[in-house]
Amino acid sequence: MYKITKDGKTMVGCNEDNWRTTSRIWFASKNESRIYGAAFTGSRVVRKDVLAPQSGMNEAGLVFSRLASYHPNGYVKQEGKKQIKDEVSYLSSILHNFSTVKEVKEYISQHDHSIFFDDVFIYVDQSGDYLVVEPYELLEGNDSTYVLSNFCPSITTNEKARQLERYKNGKDFLGLHSLDTTLSFCKAVSDTMHVCRKRNGDGTLLTSIWDTKNGLLNLYFYHNYDTSIQFVLSEELAKEDHMLDITSLFPENPEFKRLAEYKTPFNVAELRISLVLIAGFLLLLTFLFLWTYFKSRNAIKFNSIKVVFAILNLLLVYYLFVLATNIGIYYFDAPYHHHNSDLISLSSYLPFLLLLIILPLSAYNFLYIRLNTESTWIKSALFLNNTLYFILMGAFGYWGLYSIFH
pLDDT tens digits, residue range 93-135? Predict the structure, then answer.
C-alpha cells in the first residue's frame, strides 16, 4: 500500500494480493452504536456472510489497510491489556468510532494486538498522518508519501525491505516522479506495485484507491487497470447496509476465470478428503509391506521392493499433510519455498523424486508380481500402491508442482 499527501489532499492506494475468489465490498451506515459510516473491502470469509476487513474508509476520511507480515516473536500475549475476541468487530469498530490517527493510537494502545502476530496494519487520516500497527509496536509519521508492504518496519532494514519487489517499485516510482494526487497518478503507482505470478494467473486480486477528501473509492479488479468502478461513499451509506460481490461488477477476466476454475484441497472439500484417504491407504500399505517383508525376508525374490514402497509412502504421507495445510504451494513457483520451514521447502522436491523413480519402481514391481507365488492380496496391494503413485503424479502435474521453468 501507499499514501500520498499534497496540498491538503490525501490519497491511499491498497493492493490485496491473494488467490481467493470471494472478493467483496460492503457499506455499513452510522447508527446508534456507530459514529461514522464506513466502506470495507475483503475476501476472507470468517463465517457465513461475514468477511474479515482488508481495507476501508469512513466518512471522516480515516483509511486502513491490512497486510500479511511475519514477526519472529510469533504470538506473545500482552498481559494487562484488553483482549480482542472478534477481529471483525474490533477492526470495524475503529472505523466506525474514530476520525484521526491520534484517536486510533489511543484506542489500540489499550488492546493486546498479539493475535495479529502475522499482520501489520496502517491507518491514515485525512490530514495525511499515519499509524503503523505491528503486533508489538506502534509507529507514527506524517511524511508526504509512505509505502508499506509485507514486513514490520520496526525490525526490517531498508535493504531487506527493498528485496520485496512491489515495495521497491513503489518507493522508486514515487521518488522519480513529481507528487500528484490525481486518480491517474495513483493508478500508475498501484499498477507499478501490482504483482502477477505466472502460475494460475495469481496476483493482485483487488486494487482500491481511497480519496479521503472527497469520499471516493475507485476499484480495479485482478490487476486489470483498464476498467474502474467508482463509489461515492456518501451515496452508498445513504442506502441500507449492503454487500456487493466485486467479481460480478467487472467484465469477464480470463486470468481470474482460470483462477476461479482451479481446484485445490482448499476450495474443493472432496479433494481434501481424497488426500486424507490416500494418506491413510499409504500408511496401511506401509505397515503391511514391512510386516510381510520381515516375515519372509530371504524367501522371496525382489522382496526389498516392499521396503522401498514403505519408505516412499512415509515421505509422501508427510507431503500430503503439507499439501493439506499450506495453501501457498498451489500458487507460488515450484519447488515451493516456505519462509519459515526448511523441512517443508525440502518436501517440495518429493514430486520430482517420485517422477524419477516411478518407471524403474514400476518395472521392479512388475517383476516381483510375475516371478513370485506370494499371496494374491500382497500382489494386489503392491499394484494398488503403484497405482496411487500415478494418481498422485497426475494431481501434482495439475497443481503445477512440476512447473519449474516459471
Answer: 999 999 999 999 999 999 999 999 999 999 999 999 999 999 9
**Spatial contact of 91 and 85, defined as CB atoms under 8 Å apart:** no
| 29 within 8 A of 37, measured Cβ to Cβ | yes
Q: Tell me the C-alpha distance between 277 and 283, whole Å.
A: 10
Residue 236 φ/ψ, nearest 5 degrees: -70, -35
Q: Tell me the domain boundaries of the chain.
A: 2-261, 269-398
List the strands of the sheet with 130-133, edge to edge.
138-141, 130-133, 119-124, 63-68, 55-58, 38-42, 24-28, 242-245
Number of neighbours of residue 187 by Cβ within 10 angstroms: 17
| Residue 114, C-beta contacts closer than 8 angstroms, at least 6 positions apart | 75, 76, 77, 78, 135, 136
Q: What is the pTM of this model?
A: 0.86
CATH topology of domain 2-261: Penicillin V Acylase; Chain A (3.60.60)
- Which H or E element spans position 91? helix 87-97
